[in-house]
User: Fold histidine kinase from Sphingobacterium spiritivorum ATCC 33300.
Amino acid sequence: MPGIDGFEVAETLSGFNKTKEIPIIFLSAVNTDKKFITKGYESGGIDYVTKPVDPDILLLKVKTFYRLYEQTLALNETQQALISEIETRKKAETKLKERVDHLHSTLESLPQIAFTANAEGQIEFVNEKWFKYSISAETFPKTHPDDKNIRDEWLLAMGSGNALELEVRIKEIDADIFRFHLLRIIPIREQEVIVKWVGTFTDIDDQKQIEKKKDEFLSIASHELKTPLTSIKAYIQLLERTLNAEHSSSTSKYLNTVQNQVSKLNSLIADLLDISKIDNGKLKMNKKLFNFENLLSNVVDTIYHTHENSNIRIEREGDAIDQPVLGDEIRIEQVLINYLTNAIKYSPDSKRVIIKTEQENTQIKVDVTDFGIGIPEHKQKNIFNKFYRVEESSLKFQGLGIGLYICSEIIRQHNGTFGIQSQTGQGSTFYFTIPLN
Assistant:
């Protein structure tokens, strides 16, 4: 190049970021002294070749140096990628630490006992309130001997990946009384993978005591009301016989109305007693083999008798149940009466109810279908809950919302299933299944 020699060109190329990695080989037939060779290397050359030159060796050198150049570029790119990844990880770790610190700070400020654990269930953090109930951050608070084991229940939850919600009784280290707490442990997921669990113990003992007193009051009140009702009903029957003998039709009609109302009140009290038994785990089933067809026939007769003024028509479809059923006949009758009574109540403009029975190898299924007001889909999941009533019908139709709850408990204790299929304005089908034996 005019005005510049090879050494200066090499120095210039070495001074730019884009060209400094280019391998430079000096080739000279004039400057063959040691000082020129030294200057070539100092200028950034990687080799200095003097003529005469073997072309094959020169070509091999060029190929070798070029390969080294490419490898150097690849190493540099890898290094930059590693540096970038390290920086990204450092930022992610910093951000994660900030999130964890914020979580711990939040849990520390809660009024509940709170903790976190890793994906495998090893406890990583507990707040200060934990140590009022446990001497170790790695040990759950002591539970009442009759309660479920926390660790066992949590292992089941971890196996399914679901949150755990469990009522347990725990006590402070220095206390003698166990208090009810609601334990909730929820999974924290990142990209659909559980990375952490967060749990809390919430003291619900005061609430449980209030519920207990309410249930006790309900039970006592129901029993106290049932006693005079039984006497009233007996005296009404005696009075009715007397009036029938005297042929007093108008008075007999009034007494019949009174007796119907007493029967309704008696049924309501019976339901309240059942609620009390369910809440206290005392609703027992007296299971024996019985003839389902006879039971169903008696239930239909009862419904016709108690709904004389409704002009309802009950139709039967499906299979005849020709095998004996093992269950509590009185309680299954209660379920059937409830289903049919509801079907009539909530379809005031329809005079038709269908009972469909199906017999499979190991169970029977009973459907009760009406053509009434129906139930919105988003409210169907709550229809078997205690005291639940659909708002749209609660003002028009009387009831406490306990009948279906009692039915669901009866079917559960028969190891059966229950449910509903409904469309607003088109009616509902309530069903249940129970094993044959």
